Amino acid sequence: MAEIRPMRAEEIPFGLELCRIAGWNQLVADWERLLALDPEGVFIAEEQGTPCGTASAVRYGTRLSWIGMVLVHPDFRRRGIGSALMAHCIQYLQQHGVESIKLDATDQGRPVYLKLGFRDERPCYRMTGARPDGLPSHPEVRPIAPGDWPKIAEMDRAAFDADRLPLLRILHGEGPSAVIERGGELQAYGFARLGFNASYLGPLVSRNPDDARAVAETLLAALPAGSVYWDILPDNAASLALVDSYGFQVIRQLTRMVLGASTGSDGVAQIYGAASFELG
Length: 280
Ligand SMILES: CC(C)(COP(=O)(O)OP(=O)(O)OC[C@H]1O[C@@H](n2cnc3c(N)ncnc32)[C@H](O)[C@@H]1OP(=O)(O)O)[C@@H](O)C(=O)NCCC(=O)NCCS
What we know:
- The protein is of the alpha+beta class.
- It has helices at 12-22, 28-37, 81-95, 110-115, 149-160, 165-172, 209-222, 237-244, and strands spanning 3-6, 42-47, 50-60, 64-72, 100-105, 119-130, 177-182, 185-193, 199-206, 227-232, 249-260, 271-273.
């Protein structure tokens, strides 16, 4: 029976090794961010002292939480370790009184989660393409400034239906950020960062498609040349149309799943980019 315990920072190389085996995009910074959000909420499974799997549980207040990084080394699969890691995360989150637990499930993970009581919520697409060249500049768009945070917190709570501010503040230090404010009201904001296979655009939140495009193009222009990943919820058809307009293709289709209260449906129309599969 695997032993499950909190992961320590010095064990990040093992988590990273599992990411490389699975072909995932995370870097050291992605694991560090999870540990910064909750040092007790990242888990490692060991069998007789050998690390064999990981999972992470991020709490956005008590309203919503997100499970991610569910990875089991191929030599240890189909022995119940993935299910045990999940059960551990669920217990941890329920002990903290969260109303809703979500995750973005791969086809390999979904059967495991269905057995644990998760239900399908909506599809989630990973889209990719080359960073477009020759993008127009958008004078209205500027980097996020310290005074923007109260407005970002308010708009993000409406769109995401939970308090993501600690995450957004960390992302702000990791790569380009952009915001549009008009008439004293925030219209859109977004973030981007580097990844192993591709740069990552998101999260991106906007009240309308035009401002989403302006923020996205500003972020894209700030990224290095090469591939970009951009995760969207196709239930927001405008987000799919936007990413599609750059010739990006769907490379992975995941299923957003939920255990507990349903949250966030009203805000989907403002979500033009997710934060990542492990963060929502
Ligand atoms: C998805 C993943 C984490 C599952 O890990 P796992 O440890 O193999 O999961 P479990 O062993 O708990 O369950 C997987 C399957 O093994 C079966 N199983 C569990 N214990 C078993 C046992 N003792 N003997 C045989 N089969 C067993 C489960 O019933 C399940 O079967 P099913 O797929 O037919 O429903 C793993 O395949 C993985 O790392 N995949 C790549 C990364 C990935 O996609 N992660 C999910 C992200 S959302």
